[in-house]
Every structure is written in C-alpha cells, then in structure tokens.
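Severity: low
Component: inverse-folding endpoint
Summary: output formatting inconsistent between runs
Steps to reproduce: submit the following structure tokens with default settings.
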C-alpha cells in the first residue's frame, strides 16, 4: 500500500504561545483510499492542501508546530484567531477545483487549555483532548470544545454560529465534553452522527485520568484486531503495566468499527471459573432464562452480532478459557480482547506483551527539554501535578525524575504511586527512598482494587497464582542482576523434585513475571523488572536458601570469568568483552556477595579474572576497587591471588596516572611474585614499574625493568606476553628519541600480537608505528600505515582498529589542511569509541574537538566540550597527562582570550553538567570547520 509522506518539516517560530493556548488540529478524511487510488494525483492534491492550510493558519497569527502525514497541528495565542483560521481553511478547501470523486475533505477541531512547550512540542491534557475531539468529526466538519466556545462567545462574525451538539463522551474515556459545530452559511453543515462513545452501544467505563503515552501500543493493538486473522488477542504483562487501561483505549478507538458495540467485562473480583459466563452475561445485559444453559444463551445473543468483548483480568479464571473458544467458534463476527498475566492457551489466540513505558537512561540523560518524549516522565509529571499543581520539570529535578522512572522500569502503576509522593517529597527525596520501593509505593486511589493501591499488592496478586515449584524458581531467579541466560538459570537454580528450570522459566514468562530481552546478535536473555525482582529477593531471604543460591551464582560467574580470562587476550577478544559487559551486573553481585562474607577465595579469584576486561572497557576505578579489596583481606586470601592482585591493581593505577600508588603496589607484587615463583604476576608488576620509571624520567631503570619483564614473559612462552614486554621497550626507545630502533621493536611486537589475535595491543602498536612516522616527519608513511590498517580492520570487523586508525588519519588530514576529512574521521572515531564503551578514547576525542573548536573560532563550543571532557575524565578516574594538556591548551587559551571570562565559565560549567551521552551527541552535531591545527608532535599523548 502506498502511504502519504510522514513528518514534513515545519519551521519553528521565534516564540511559541505558552500558558493558555488554542489548538487547531486537522486531517483528511479517507486519505488512505485516495493514496491507494492514485498516488500521483494525491501527491499534487496534498501539496495544494498544505498551501491552503498553512496560509490560513499563518495569516491568522497561528503556526504549525507539527505535521504527521496529512494532519496539521497548529497553535494560536487566542481562540478567535484559531476560529478565523479554521473558517478560512474550510472555505479555501471548498473553493478548490478538486477532481470529481477525489475531493479533499478535512475535519477540524479546536480546543483551548493550559500546556507546556518543551523540545519542539506541546505537552499536557489539552493536546490529547483536541486529538480526541478531532477523531469524533467528519470531513468538512469543524468541532469546537466548550472552553474554546466560551472564549469566542459574542466575538464571532454575524453569520457564524456554534451549533450545540450536546454532552458527548470522547474516546479518551475521561469526562464528557460539551461539543459545538461551527456553522456558516457558505459551508456544509449536515454530517453523520459524531463518532463518540455515545454513538454505539458500549459499557466502557469512564476513566478518572487521560491515558499518557501508549499511542504506539494502542495503534498496534487496534491494527491487530482489525486483521481478519485475529479474533482473540490477549494483552499480557505483570501487574501495574497498564493492560486494562490499554485495552479500554483500544476498545474506544475501535468502537465505530463494531455495529453492536464494545463491552467491558471486569473479572478481577471473580475467583471461580464457573462464574465467568454469568459475569459476561451480566455485562451484556443478558438474564438467565433457565430453559437452557447460560452458555447457550450467550451464544444465541452473540451469534449474529459484530461485537468487541473485552475480558479484563482473565488470569483469575484461566480454567474458563475453553468458554472463550466456544464463543468464538459459534459467533463468527465476535472478537475478543483479553487482559491477563498469562495467555489463555486457546486455539487461534495471539498474544501481545504490553511493554513498560519508555524511560530515559540515567547514565545518558538528554537535555531537559527532551524529557517529555519519554512516556514515564510525562506520566510522572501529570500525576505529580494532580497532588502538587505547581510541579514542573526543571534542570535541577529532571535527573532524579529520570532515575525514579528508570528504577521503576516504567511500570505505570509504580510511576503513579511514586508521583503521588511529591505531595510530601521532592523527586530527589523519592529517589533516595527507592531502596525499598515496595514500602514507598503505596497509597493509591481508594476506589482502585486493593492490589492496585500498592505495588506490593499488584505483585502479590501474580505470585499467588504460582504453583509451589514455580515460586521456588521465581525467588531463586532473583539472585541474577541485570538479566541472565537460560543456561545460567539452569545451573544456578538447580532442579529439585518437580522443578525444571526450562519449563519453569517458560511458565514464568507466560505469567509475566519474567521478560525476554532480544540482543543485537539474535540471542535472547531473560530478566525481571526491578520492582518484581525486589519482591522475589524478599521471598528468597524469607526462604532460608539465599546464601546457598548466591553461592551457586558466584560459582557460575567465577567459572565464566576464568574461562574468559585468556580468551580476552586472543582473537575472540571483542566477543568475550561484549559477553562480560552484558553480565557485568551479575559479576558485581557475585563480587559483593563474596567480599561481603561469602566464599573467602571466590571474590579475589573473580577480581583477578576480570582485570583485563576492566582495562579493555575503561572500568579502571571499579577494577582497582575490587582488586584492592582482595589486598585488604590479608590472611583470608591466598598468596597467589594477592600476588596477581598487586600487579593488576598497580597496572590500572598506572593507567589512571596514579604513579605513586602504582609503584607501591607493583613493588609488593614483584616481591611476593618472586617468592612464590608466580611468573605472570611478577612480570605484570615489573612492566608497571618500568612505565613508572619511564614516565619519571629514569630511562636506565626503565630499560632494566622492561628487559627483566621480557625475560620473565619469554620463559612463560606466550607470544602475546612477549609482545607486551617488547611494547615497553619500544615505548622507551621512542621516549629516548631513537625512532628507528623503536620502529623495529614495535614491528616485532605487532607480529606477535597479530599471531595471538590481541586486538587491543595490536591497535596500540599500530598507533605508535604511525605516530613515530609522523614524529619523523614522514606523514606519507604514517598515512600508509593507518590506511592499510583501516582497510584491514574494516574487512575483519575490528572496530578497535577502525577507531584508532580513523582518529590518527584525522590528524594527518589536519596536517595536510583537509579539515573536512579530518572532522569526518574524528567523529567516526568518537562514535566507535562510544559504541565500544572505550570512555578514555571518547574523552580524548572530546578534548581534541574542544581544541579544534577553539582553533576555528567556535569559542563557546570549545568551552562546552572542554568542560564535558574534564567531567568525564574525573568520572572514569583518568587524569590527563601533561602531553594531553599540551595538545589542546594553546587553542583553548586562544579561545578563552577572545571570550568574556564570565561567558567562558558559564559555557564550561554547562559542559561539565552534560551527561556522557549528551556530551557525545553534542560533539557529533553541528559543523566544526577545523578540528585541530598542526602541533608540536613531541607533545602528542602516548598510548600504553
């Protein structure tokens, strides 16, 4: 099917109306049919339609703030201007000479209310209200709400009138609305009945608040139910997901498509499956005659009717599922929409898993103006205003609101209960008390079912439906943090008696207490929503088996980490690093249990096994913390584990430029490693000491230490480790200025890294080979090295190599004056650094871009980027070297000298306040005419 173009761009005016605004929404009746009949003709007609609508709106002081397909959304500072625009548009459309049978008929709606403008859109109940008012009308008809009608009363032209259409229930299921039709002698005035809930038979209950978000989900459910193949659709999800509200809105939107209407059947108070049929009958107004079974009465009533039946909370009466199958088999025009925490298992059933509301990532917060794009945030704000009318989202409280929504998994019930606490607590106070969300989140509306008045009640409801073996598995699965693979569940939650992990997981998935996460590689993981996991953890503690299960969890992840330890040095490095990152929260949980009193040796072994992963992914500070906990345990840890931890913690301290601590740890590591004959631990400590000596200017001591490192690694026989030792010697020769000798050593090391498949050390070596060529003034050779590596890395999918080569080719392009290419390559490197999780490389790119902005006269941008880079460096615990600062400071100083000091500090402070993702997005956006001028190459940073 051909569809109209979507989302045509609109210009943003210099000032949007705020506070009380009158909205004019429009769309074309039957546009899909017109597109299907003649796409070319419709495209021309749509262009003319757009001209008429836009000129009518803008000539009357309005502006178009959004278009979607053929729909226009416009805002006006006053109601009379909005009415004039609607009249002008309808007259213009009527006067147009449309081809016969292809007339463009546009329905319009006007509504006035108080809204908030953020991020290029309006938010607030009036926006939802005008959209629902529009859906009630017909092509050529203009509907006006009571608030707008009151504002234009007495101010309309003499020939314009408002026809009272009466109190009507719009399809947002909230309060009824007094609706008026704009009547003018030269425009059509007779139309079919309004498409409101009153127009068809239904018992859909009025809702106390409008539905926030869920536009996509409502649309998907409606489309599924419109399909001829779908006659039974079951909405599944845990308690508090909003299944009932979603089903009601979908039923309201579909009401016009069912001649016999839509009927809602509440089963929440029913426990006996035998009572399902009488409850359905009562909702339909059927009384039991006694001449035949009630089920037959139901079939007789429904058999010829085109009707939508909504069965809510069917998990209560799952054994009555065959009844639904019988009704569908006997009543060919019947469709059934079910909400349940478990699927019915009836032939022909299709399942729709209701997702949580969208939430921002607290680690990658967008600007506050973009927060309303997240449904959970919008819901929080709307419900907070219900108890605290002056509540608004600000730069100060937005991060706390984001964290609340994220920690509550976007569960509508949980978000609403949290928002209700703003009566007493600011968002930060609510966030700080979420350690036990089940205790905090209570006090829902008293007219709701008991299970919906507290989050605990909602989860209790689901837990009560489980068999004993399922409850056992449910509580054991809570030991996993951040998700898990099925294999992990089978190992940690070992089968006992009738407990089978595979069948149990499938059952918990079906009952909405587990969720499946699809990974980009096509594999899937399982997880619990955080609020459900908190409940399950309480059950685990109460069971008395918590320590045993946590012990098995730690054993499983220790085995996985030790398997990964050597894989991280080989050709499958990236795959294993990704796998460990996916399970990082489980490793943290295992470490916390082990060091908190669990198995004495498992924590140190696990920390030692993960150290290279922490290095690869930039978790330097976290890695040091766990490794130093190993060292703090004294006689409770084996000497071998301590020897390894000394060297590995020392190396991470070196990466963070904490040379004093690196030296102290490594000296102890050498001493203990030699005593134990632990060669690898000794060599890592020697290597770290060599770098400490080198960076301290003692080249003689550095050479002795690097050569001893190489000798120890050589005895161990690993080509990768020998290359690592050679890398230290190459770095030394580079510092001494013997570039030819350094080049020879690095080439030897490169061959060994390629043999071993270590992508990280290979990339670092390529960096140094190319950099030495630049130091020698041979930019052509450097370019050749990086281009060859870029081609090779792209061919093999080595993103680490692509990142390093792109960033260095950017430097060469700058030296050659090709600033456009340099910008493109540098941004490629930044994007890859973000994708790979290499935060230090991201920071280096941000710093380079800050200097570039200063060099090209973008002084405020330079301050923003520099502030962001400084804050991120502090966050990852990696202070800049003197070479890092020397690279960019001259250009920053130049930019600062051109800028008022207060303005510079303001921009720098704004940059420091950026979250990680916000800073990266900012750096990747906007033109940067020149990224980095030629600098003294001897100040360029080293990569160790």
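Observed output (run 2 of 3):
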């Amino acid at each position: 099917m051909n569809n109209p173009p979507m989302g045509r761009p609109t210009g943003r005016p210099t000032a949007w109306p705020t506070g009380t605004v009158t909205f004019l929404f429009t769309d074309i009746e039957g546009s899909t049919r017109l597109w299907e009949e003649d796409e070319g003709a419709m495209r021309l007609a749509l262009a003319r339609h757009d001209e008429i609508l836009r000129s009518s709106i803008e000539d009357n002081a309005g502006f178009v703030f959004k278009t979607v397909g053929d729909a226009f959304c416009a805002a006006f500072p006053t109601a009379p201007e909005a009415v004039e625009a609607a009249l002008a548009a309808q007259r213009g459309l009527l006067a147009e000479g449309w081809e016969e049978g292809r007339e463009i008929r546009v329905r319009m709606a006007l509504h006035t209310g108080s809204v908030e403008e953020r991020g290029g859109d309006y938010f607030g109940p009036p926006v939802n209200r005008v959209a629902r008012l529009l859906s009630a009308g017909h092509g050529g008809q203009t509907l006006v709400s009571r608030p707008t009608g009151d504002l234009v009363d007495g101010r309309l032209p003499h020939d314009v009138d408002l026809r009272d259409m009466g109190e009507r229930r719009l399809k947002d299921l909230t309060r009824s609305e007094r609706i008026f039709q704009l009547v003018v002698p030269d425009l059509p005035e007779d139309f079919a009945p309004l498409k409101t809930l009153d127009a068809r038979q239904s018992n859909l209950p009025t809702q106390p608040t409008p539905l926030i978000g869920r536009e996509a989900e409502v649309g998907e459910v409606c489309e599924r139910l419109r399909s001829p193949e779908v006659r039974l659709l079951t909405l599944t999800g845990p308690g508090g997901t909003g299944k009932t509200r979603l089903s009601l809105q979908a039923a309201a939107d579909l009401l016009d498509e069912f001649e016999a209407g839509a009927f809602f059947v509440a089963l929440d108070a029913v426990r006996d499956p035998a009572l399902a049929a009488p409850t359905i009958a009562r909702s339909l107004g059927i009384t039991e005659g006694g001449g035949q079974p009630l089920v037959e009465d139901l079939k007789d009533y429904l058999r010829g009717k085109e009707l939508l039946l909504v069965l809510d909370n069917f998990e209560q009466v799952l054994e009555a599922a065959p009844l639904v199958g019988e009704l569908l088999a006997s009543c060919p025009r019947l469709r059934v929409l079910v909400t349940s925490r478990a699927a019915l298992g009836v032939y022909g059933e299709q399942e729709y898993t209701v997702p949580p509301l969208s939430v921002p990532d607290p680690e990658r917060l967008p600007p506050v103006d973009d927060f309303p794009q997240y449904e959970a945030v919008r819901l929080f704000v709307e419900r907070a205003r219900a108890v605290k009318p002056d509540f608004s989202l600000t730069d100060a409280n937005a991060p706390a609101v984001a964290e609340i929504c994220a920690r509550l998994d976007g569960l509508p019930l949980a978000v609403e209960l949290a928002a209700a606490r703003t009566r007493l607590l600011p968002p930060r106070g609510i966030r700080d008390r979420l350690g036990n969300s089940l205790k905090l989140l209570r006090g829902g509306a008293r007219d709701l079912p008991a299970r919906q008045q507290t989050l605990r009640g909602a989860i209790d409801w689901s837990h009560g439906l489980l068999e004993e073996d399922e409850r056992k598995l449910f509580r054991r699965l809570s030991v996993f943090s951040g998700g898990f693979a099925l294999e992990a569940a089978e190992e940690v939650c070992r089968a006992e008696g009738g407990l089978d992990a595979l069948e149990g997981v499938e059952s918990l998935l079906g009952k909405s207490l587990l969720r499946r996460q699809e990974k980009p590689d096509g594999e899937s993981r399982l997880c619990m929503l955080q609020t459900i996991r908190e409940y399950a953890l309480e059950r685990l503690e109460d069971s008395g088996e918590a320590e045993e299960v946590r012990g098995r969890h730690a054993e499983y992840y220790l085995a996985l980490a030790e398997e990964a330890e050597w894989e991280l040095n080989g050709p499958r490095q990236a795959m294993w690093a990704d796998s460990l990152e996916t399970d990082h929260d489980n490793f943290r949980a295992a470490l916390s249990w082990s060091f908190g009193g669990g198995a004495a040796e498992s924590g140190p072994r696990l920390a030692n096994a993960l150290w290279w992963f922490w290095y690869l992914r930039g978790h330097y500070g976290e890695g040091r913390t766990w490794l130093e906990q190993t060292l703090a345990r004294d006689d409770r840890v084996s000497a071998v584990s301590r020897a390894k931890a000394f060297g590995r913690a020392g190396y991470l301290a070196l990466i963070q430029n904490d040379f004093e601590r690196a030296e102290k740890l490594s000296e102890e590591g050498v001493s203990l490693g030699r005593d134990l004959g632990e060669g690898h631990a000794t060599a890592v400590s020697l290597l770290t000491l060599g770098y400490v000596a080198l960076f301290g200017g003692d080249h003689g001591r550095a050479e002795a230490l690097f050569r001893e490192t190489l000798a120890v690694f050589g005895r161990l026989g690993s080509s990768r480790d020998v290359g690592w030792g050679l890398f230290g010697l190459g770095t030394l020769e580079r510092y001494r200025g013997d570039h030819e000798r350094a080049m020879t050593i690095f080439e030897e090391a490169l061959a060994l890294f390629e043999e071993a498949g270590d992508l990280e050390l290979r990339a670092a070596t390529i960096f140094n080979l190319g950099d030495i060529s630049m130091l020698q003034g041979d930019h052509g050779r450097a370019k050749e090295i990086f281009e060859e590596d870029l081609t090779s890395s792209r061919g093999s999918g080595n993103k680490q190599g692509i990142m390093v080569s792109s960033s260095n080719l950017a430097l060469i392009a700058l030296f050659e004056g090709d600033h456009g290419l340099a910008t493109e390559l540098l941004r490629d490197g930044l994007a890859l650094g973000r994708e790979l999780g290499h935060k230090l490389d991201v920071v280096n790119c941000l710093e380079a871009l800050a200097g570039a902005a200063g060099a090209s006269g973008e002084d405020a941008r330079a301050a923003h980027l520099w502030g962001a880079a400084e804050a991120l460096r502090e966050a990852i615990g990696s202070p800049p070297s003197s070479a890092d600062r020397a690279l960019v400071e001259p250009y920053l100083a130049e930019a600062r000298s051109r800028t008022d000091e207060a303005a510079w500090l303001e921009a720098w402070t704004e940059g420091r306040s950026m979250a990680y993702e916000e800073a990266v997005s900012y750096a990747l956006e906007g033109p940067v005419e020149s990224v980095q001028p030629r600098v003294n190459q001897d100040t360029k940073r080293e990569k160790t």
